[in-house]
Amino acid sequence: MSNKNRVNKKALKRRMTLLAAGAAMLFMGAGADNAVYAEEAAEKTVYQLEEVLVEGEAFVYPGSYVNKKARYGILGYKDILDIPYTEISLTAKSIETFGTPGLTLNEVLTNIPSIRSSTSSPMYTDFSMRGINMNGNNMYLNGIPNLFYQFTTPPAHIIERMDVTVGPNAGINGATTSSNGTNSGKSAPPGMINVISKRAGDEPVTRYTQTFSGRGSWGEYIDIGRRFGENQEWGLRVNAGHLDGDLSLAGTEKEEKTFFINLDHRDDRSTTNLLAGYFDLRVNEGQRWFILSDSVNKGLMPKVPDAKNSYDFPETTKYVHGYLSTLNHEQKINDTWRWYVNTGMASRSGTKYNAGSALYIDGYGNFLSSNKLNHQNEASKNVYVQTGVNGDFTAGEVKHSLAFSVDRAWTKYWNTSVNSVAGLISGNLYDGIVYGDYTLPEAGHASLSYEETVVGVTLADTMEYKKLQVLVAGSRRDGKFESSSEKVNNLDLAPSVGITYKPVKNVSFYTGYSSSYSRGAFVSDAKYENKGRILSPVKNKQAEVGVKYENNGLLTTLSYFDLNQGNYVDLPGSTSGKYILTQEGENRYKGVELTVNGKISPKWNITGGFMHLDHKREKTGTAMKDGWYVNGVSDWSSVIALEYNPDDRTAVIGRANYNSSAYIDDNKAKIPSYVTFDLGVSYKTKISATPVKLSAMCYNVADKDYWMGRGGSTTFGLSMPRTFTLTAQFDL
What we know:
The longest helix is centred in the N-terminal third of the chain and has 18 residues, at 9-26. By secondary structure, this protein is mostly beta strands. 5% of the residues lie in helices and 54% in strands.
């Protein structure tokens, strides 16, 4: 591969203009109104027209960074105070304010203290939740799982809201396949993120947004929404975007083209929503992961280099394109019972050239001769379908909200990967990496790697008696996983229980528990003698107890949690240089989390909190590592974002992120703690009669260089340098 594949900027500008014209023509003569979830119609209207935001609005907390309702699995939407675990629903304002055009959704998600970004590389989406690594594969779109993966998340410009579940909820969400990027499905996630796409609102929208970020990355986005029909029952929303240019890291380019159409219908008896979209994403250079491999200088951690340094060879690239769709329909059976169906699919293919998933270095920052160049071709197809009923009824003095569903998730994955010979890479972190005379490896066509199918049956009931609510739920999941060399069947029984007590309307005390099995690790790396094997499933448990308090527009949640995941170790193999991947005991996470969201005075808004995490290994047996810290996890993490509104048109935003130190090499080498600061400002005005919102944001204001841990992994990332973004939003 050569630089000929890099972006032709003038041609792409022409294509973006044609894309804009096509979207505009699509909506010529259309009408106005709102979305699938009828009870949230007011909320969606608020987001379309920021000028009419009203303090105390029924569905949004003052400050407009979080919603008051969130998705409660198959039970539908519920007030945050009534959910027996930590739940935070991020609004469109959160996404617009903290989203970075050139990177993933991580800058938005880190407003939640239990979520920490695991990478600054635009090639990956990894983040951790309560210490456990996750990525785009753990994101749902309109209630549909498995549409994204380690390289992709939902495009920020199509998102209306993100419901972030942090806590014991395994028994209420139905089936999902377990593939999870480099985790190989071996870790049950501690939560999930459900993204809701934009739908046509009660007021027509014709919005054009232009962004500039990094060294020369330009983005153009079109957002058009209309309702039509005799009773405004039909809605159409089109979101198109094009991003192209140099990011803040020298040599790193990103090109992204997306086109999404959302069609919805609503009447007195039913609501239907159809989303269909296409994505095309390429990142040239920007690899930022490393592995410390030094048998002589154990515990020696290299000094952090200048984050502006690039460690890629010129042809480094990652490319993926594909399409996806979701369909959600709810039909009234009578006044108390509803039937629903949710279905979705995604198909993607792509290629990657890089120096492996991470570069090996020693304790002095020297690149090791064992590093190799890699080429990978891959593709996947994911299909999901769910149907069920839910309803409300009263038995004596107890009110019931009952839901039942049957669903099926199916994933098929093709992959071919090949490495170059070793010895092509030298140099160090500080003077620069040196690539010798190399020929890029060619992987050939991707071949079938595995296929996984999970069929689930889920039943949930919330019982309310006076000030007490009790959740009882369970999910049975029959899974089949077949690789090229092995086939396994897994039966997972996942119960969830929760209790919420509200002594007064604005205070709730709660406790929750759930358990489930994660599929055993699929051993895919050639360094293992047991490559191709599927290890035994691991039982994962979660428990949480806490209190939620709402007062004068400020929501505070304080929780204590306890959860586990399987611990995997490399044992010496019978062949020199080879290992055997083995599941040894578990990683245990116990912690306290505080989140604060809302308005603290008439002109000040706040979002953020802190988390303290006790993370240790237990029951490690022959590995004899009981009491060792989990790699890549910090004891403390916190985030505080403050917004000051001197008037109705101006907002000044400041945010601080803190991570304490973390071990990345089995209780030996430790990455230092770090603090970063972000600053921004936005201003609403008019150009002629056109409302305009101008925004500027600077991430990592102090240009801090730091290492980033990655939950449960010995790999660690290098930060990105200071990044500026400018945005102009026109409501035409």
